[in-house]
From TrEMBL:
Biased composition regions of type Pro residues, renumbered to the chain: 47-60
Keywords of this entry: Carboxypeptidase, Hydrolase, Protease
Domain of life of the native organism: Bacteria
Family to which the UniProt record says this protein belongs: Belongs to the peptidase S13 family.
PANTHER family: D-ALANYL-D-ALANINE CARBOXYPEPTIDASE, PENICILLIN-SENSITIVE CARBOXYPEPTIDASE A
Keyword Protease recorded: yes
Gene Ontology terms: biological process: peptidoglycan metabolic process; proteolysis
Ranges of biased composition (kind: Low complexity): 37-46
Protein name: D-alanyl-D-alanine carboxypeptidase/D-alanyl-D-alanine-endopeptidase
An example molecular function term from Gene Ontology annotations: serine-type carboxypeptidase activity
Keyword set includes Zinc-finger: no
Region Disordered, residue ranges: 37-60
Length: 509
């Protein structure tokens, strides 16, 4: 991934030719995504008439899978499975395929498929720095506006290269600017102001973020909307040393201690709900050095304060007041663009969503294609796409883009129907190459199903595991499959192992 000029170019996303040979299209005349002018009419189409879920054909494969699901611990889960012939749609194995399940991150399959259909693989976000005012010598006076587009990659840790806000500050300094006076305004109106979807656990929002577990969505987003807290042990019994950049992004209440032990830490960094105050508790070992990421409460002010820090770092004096554009009556409508940053194409963004299960990227893309930049508008747009794919929307409930919501529902049958639809879509190669390959490095399948001809999306929440995607049978038949396990009480690794054993039964025997 490289950053060239103001545009981000990711070099690692070439289409994998394996998909073209392994999974032929169902029909020769794949339809392109409808033009924007046609979306309103298409979105109003009625839901298809639901068809009964076919039963599994009897035989040794069905018996083997049934036996896998009845072994110790697996028998305590509620299982939903649909495996179909990708060419004909004929069932290979079915269990509770018409029942609704929590899909967890398999929801991202729905999100990325809809995004590719509605926005197109070449869609790019544009984020701009605009200015309205006057310049006298080396002093700028007026309004600087950070104009957001909902770009999830803006300053993201997933993108290598220069930081766009830091680069803009340095460019202003190189242009001879010594001082800026006035207002720094964040325009985040591409999205509505509701930061979180319905059905999220509060722990997703306030706890230190693993893979940006529950970061706030924002029309102006920066650095994945998380703040990095660098922590280093000090002397035993003393507070660890902490550094937070940018300065002033959050406040910190440090209640942690450095222990006398050389190993073992109980450190926890949480953010108070609806606040940018962090509370650090527990202890760190004497040898501890590390960084934790915590979601910020207000992405817009986080981006603005970061930019002020970079301006000062570049040697520019600032006399700026920071504002969300919604708080202003006069909004500098004629501001001129100084710099414009282009995101990678959507084809590369959906690969991050599906291969790495990036929740933040998924939520940003979800709102991007939604009417009004809202979760409700995105849900309606998703339903419209599913109807065009001949999927009964009574079988699916969409509350977010990532699958963190415990209100999301999907049936295995609907999921394989969507996979089959995308196999005949104009964006089929982009969609399928966005899925993780079995054993593929730096993906959620890196340590699973090695040597199996599988390309799929994982899913996990508390008491939920899922896997859906494409695979090949031993005779070369391409299949689509969806496996959901809900409400289990045993160890999660046992459920994951059972899912993988089911896939192996279908693909390797």
């Amino acid at each position: 991934m490289l950053l060239l000029g103001t545009a981000v170019v990711w070099s690692s996303g070439s289409i994998d030719a394996r998909f073209s040979t392994l999974f032929p299209t169902i029909a020769p005349d794949a339809q392109s995504a409808p033009a924007p002018s046609a979306l309103a009419a298409a979105d109003a189409s009625p839901a298809p008439t639901p068809s009964p879920v076919p039963a599994s054909p009897p035989g040794p494969l069905a018996a083997e899978i049934d036996q896998l699901l009845e072994r110790w611990q697996a028998d305590r889960a509620f299982w939903g499975i649909s495996v179909i012939n990708l060419k004909t749609g004929d069932p290979i194995y079915q269990r509770n395929a018409g029942h609704a399940f929590l899909p967890a991150s398999n929801q991202k399959i729905i999100t990325t498929a809809t995004a590719l259909d509605v926005l197109g693989p070449t869609y790019r976000y544009e984020t701009a720095l605009r200015f309205s005012g006057e310049t006298e010598g080396n002093v700028m006076r007026g309004d600087l506006i950070l104009d957001g587009s909902g770009d999830p990659t803006f300053g993201s840790s997933e993108v290598r290269g220069e930081d766009p806000l830091r680069a803009w500050a340095e460019r202003l300094a190189n242009m001879g600017v010594k001082r800026i006076e006035g207002r720094l305004i964040g325009d985040d109106n591409r999205f509505d102001d509701r930061p979180y979807p319905e059905g999220w656990d509060v722990d997703y929002i306030t706890k230190q973020a693993g893979r940006y577990m529950g970061t706030s969505a924002g029309g102006l987003s920066y650095k994945d909307n998380v703040v990095s807290v660098r922590i280093a042990a000090s002397r035993p019994g003393a507070r660890p040393n902490v550094r937070i950049r940018p300065d002033g992004a959050v406040s910190l209440q440090n209640e942690s201690l450095t222990s006398r032990r050389w190993r073992g830490s109980t450190l926890q960094v949480d953010r108070l709900f609806d606040s940018n105050k962090l509370v650090m508790t527990g202890s760190v070992a004497r040898s501890y050095r590390g960084t934790v990421s915590v979601p910020v409460s207000n992405p817009t002010t986080f981006a603005l304060n970061s930019f002020v820090t970079y301006l000062r770092d570049a040697g520019i004096e600032t006399a700026l007041t920071v504002h969300d554009i919604d708080d202003l009556d006069d909004r500098a409508p004629n501001a001129e663009a100084l710099f414009v940053h282009l995101s990678p194409p959507l084809s590369e963004i959906v690969a991050v969503i599906n291969k790495q299960s990036n929740n933040f990227y998924a939520e940003q893309v979800f709102r991007t294609y939604g009417w009004g930049g809202s979760t409700r508008g995105a849900s309606r747009r998703t339903d419209a796409f599913l109807r065009r794919a001949d999927i009964d929307t009574d079988l699916v409930r969409v509350y977010d883009g990532s699958g963190l919501s415990r209100k999301d529902l999907a049936t295995p049958g609907a999921m394989v129907q969507l996979l089959r639809h995308m196999n005949d879509h104009s964006a089929r190669d982009v969609f399928r190459s966005s899925l993780a390959g079995a054993g593929e490095n730096n993906t959620t399948l890196e340590h699973r199903l090695r040597r199996a001809p599988v390309f799929a999306k994982t899913g996990s929440l508390r008491y939920v595991r899922a896997l859906s995607g494409y695979a090949l049978r031993p005779d070369g038949t391409p299949i689509a499959f969806s496996i959901f396990a809900n409400n289990y009480t045993g160890p999660s690794y046992q459920i994951t192992r059972t899912i993988d054993d089911v896939v192996r039964a279908v693909t390797l025997k």
